[in-house]
């Protein structure tokens, strides 16, 4: 089974090919819009693996949450390839994939959502323990138990979180970012179970409907107009 996975929910974009359990991951060039680099990178990686689009059995993408533009790009490319080659689509939660990549059993994922907020989710062996939320670091819900692993760049962006989570976290991975190989690893068993959806039904998971602060909001927090 051959699966293409796309992850562009942050500035660090990547793709991965799952080929019967062997994963080949490649990162998007830095400093260039994902919309410009994704298709050339996909073609080059398929060529490297000696595969063509006709050899794929499905397309997965990180559905969110994350950058509004990045999520639209990943979803649009996945839909386009799926339509063109009659492939099923497998949307995967961005934070779900991060929880898997962390290698932890009880995982708190904290991804910087910008605008003074974070995307936050709790997972047990990469299975969600509730809905992903967006909140300010000071309002992040605390687990009622110890022994958690915390990961994601929200930990580095908001040092307050270290103090808030210190009583329940025993391992920290602030450097962990979303990547396509974890998306592929979550999507592959779903594709094998024929759980892919039609391309027309694929959609990003935004969590919130606001992409930027207003001028008044930036000024109120000491920013520039």
From TrEMBL:
One of its GO terms (cellular component) is cytosol. Signal peptide: none annotated. InterPro entries: ATPase_NBD, Gcp-like_dom, T6A_TsaB. CDD domains: ASKHA_NBD_TsaB (cd24032). Pfam families: TsaD. Residues 33-125 form the Gcp-like domain. It comes from the Bacteria. GO terms for biological process: tRNA threonylcarbamoyladenosine modification. This is T(6)A37 threonylcarbamoyladenosine biosynthesis protein. It comes from Candidatus Accumulibacter phosphatis.
């Amino acid at each position: 089974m051959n699966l293409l996975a796309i992850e562009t929910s942050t500035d660090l974009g990547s793709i991965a090919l799952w080929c019967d359990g062997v994963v080949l991951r490649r990162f998007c060039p830095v400093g260039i819009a994902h919309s410009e680099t994704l298709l050339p990178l996909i073609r080059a990686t398929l060529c490297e693996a000696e595969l063509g689009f006709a050899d794929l059995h499905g397309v997965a993408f990180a559905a969110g949450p994350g950058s509004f533009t990045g999520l639209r790009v990943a979803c649009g490319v996945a839909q386009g390839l799926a339509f063109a080659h009659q492939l099923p689509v497998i949307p995967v939660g961005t934070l779900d994939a991060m929880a898997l990549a962390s290698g932890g059993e009880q995982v708190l994922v904290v991804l910087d959502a910008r605008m003074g907020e974070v995307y936050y989710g709790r997972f047990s062996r990469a299975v969600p323990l509730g809905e992903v939320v967006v909140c300010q670091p000071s309002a992040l819900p605390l687990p009622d138990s110890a022994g958690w692993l915390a990961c994601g760049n929200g930990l580095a962006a908001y040092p307050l979180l270290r103090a808030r989570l210190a009583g329940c976290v025993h391992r920290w991975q602030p450097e962990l970012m979303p990547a396509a190989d974890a998306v592929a690893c979550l999507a592959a068993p779903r594709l094998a179970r024929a759980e892919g959806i039609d391309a027309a039904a694929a959609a990003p998971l935004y969590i919130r409907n606001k992409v930027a602060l207003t001028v008044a909001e930036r000024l109120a927090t000491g920013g520039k107009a």
